[in-house]
Amino acid sequence: NAGVTQTPKFQVLKTGQSMTLQCAQDMNHEYMSWYRQDPGMGLRLIHYSVGAGITDQGEVPNGYNVSRSTTEDFPLRLLSAAPSQTSVYFCAIRTGGGYGYTFGSGTRLTVV
Amino acid sequence: AQSVAQPEDQVNVAEGNPLTVKCTYSVSGNPYLFWYVQYPNRGLQFLLKYITGDNLVKGSYGFEAEFNKSQTSFHLKKPSALVSDSALYFCASNAGNMLTFGGGTRLMVKP
């Protein structure tokens, strides 16, 4: 998954805690997005951004916050974690013609 | 709204046999369709995509997919399965700025 870096790889939170999942890219692509993966439900889009200063909601945005102050970074914030947010989170960038997408290696989040 | 369905949670096939992983879609306009594979504890890897042109699309690792507009399907195929093909496979469609995934199909290839 060269070019898309996600940190941390694993995280355990207590209910009500906040945290930020980091996503960084070094390929200067405008489009970045966050997905969550849950068993049997595939990946669902949380938020996306088409460029610095522009963000929009995806399919499951509630409980998550994003901002895009630079082209390189697209952090995902959980303001008050809930057990329902236990999931694997993937950051993805869109890479050029044909709408190819490249995914990061994921962050496995457990909320207890 | 667009949607993607993968009707089989799991597909079992013997090594050396042909495999098919099914996908149907519902999108308005011309669909952009993708197949991704996920190995345990890894991210998603791109296999192939259909944008326009030939209905038979060839991708990585010997996989191919057939786009059928009348049946709104985009099934993934491989002539001869390998044990190393065992993984989770996702079909996806893109419309605008949203990539919509099916629920995934686990492929188990047994020696």
List the topology elements:
The complex is a heterodimer of chains A (112) and B (111).
Chain A: E1 4-7, E2 10-13, E3 19-25, E4 32-37, E5 43-51, E6 54-57, E7 64-66, E8 76-78, E9 87-94, E10 101-103, E11 107-111
Parallel strand pairs in A: 2-11
Antiparallel strand pairs in A: 1-3, 3-8, 4-5, 4-9, 5-6, 7-8, 9-10, 9-11
Chain B: E1 3-5, E2 10-14, E3 19-21, E4 24-26, E5 32-38, E6 44-50, E7 56-58, E8 64-68, E9 73-78, E10 87-95, E11 98-101, E12 105-110
Parallel strand pairs in B: 2-12
Antiparallel strand pairs in B: 1-4, 3-9, 5-6, 5-10, 7-8, 8-9, 10-11, 10-12
Mean pLDDT metric of chain B? 93
- The portion of residues forming beta strands of chain B comes to over 45%
Major sheet summary line of chain A: 7 strands, mixed
Helix content of chain A: under 10%
Question: How many H/I helical runs of chain A?
Answer: 0
Please tell me what the overall shape of chain A is.
globular
What gap, in angstroms, lies between the N and C termini of chain A? 29 Å
Query: Which structural class do the helices and strands of chain B define?
Result: mainly beta
H and E order of chain B: EEEEEEEEEEEE
User: Helical percent range of chain B?
Assistant: under 10%
Largest interface: A-B, 26 and 24 residues
Low-confidence stretches of chain A: none
Give the low-pLDDT segments of chain B: none
- Name the overall outline of chain B: globular
CA-CA gap between termini of chain B: 41 Å
Mean pLDDT across all amino acids of chain A: 93
The largest sheet of chain B, given as strand count, sense and whether it forms a barrel, is: 6 strands, mixed
Q: State the order of secondary-structure elements of chain A, H for helix, E for strand.
A: EEEEEEEEEEE
In total, how many beta strands of chain B? 12
β-strand number of chain A: 11
